[in-house]
Amino acid sequence: MATADTVELSEPHAPKEASVNAFNYILPSLKSELVKLRRDHDKHEPEYFRAVSSLSDHDLASFSADDLESVRVGSSAYGLHLFGKVKIPAAKDGYIHVRIHIAAEDGTDGSSEDERVAKLHSIHTEEVVKPDGDHVYRAIFGKGDTLEWFDT
User: Which residues of the chain have pLDDT under 70?
Assistant: First the structure.
């Protein structure tokens, strides 16, 4: 299993063509999953999406590949792990962090971009437990938040 300990991520950098292509490939599922994720969290813990609570679903998911501001990429035996920071244009300082897995298409060795398939792995949600035991939840990050390895 790929983990932060077994996969070395590149430094954050502007997305290159291959990253933009992978992002565009998963864009419809990303938008759908983001809206679904917000609706699910709003039922139990609305704090995750409080920073964008005034946005409609359409505005929340109004981003495109042009809003993919930075990426980090790592390689493992399972394929490529692409982490991206995506600006939500309708939010003042709102970003989501996404994880995309890129693997060889069945029947190929994945040696060329044409032989690779991208799949949305996850949208980052964070739960922090403060020293006093209080929990802080978020799925919307700011420009200054570092793009790090995440599983959720």
Answer: none
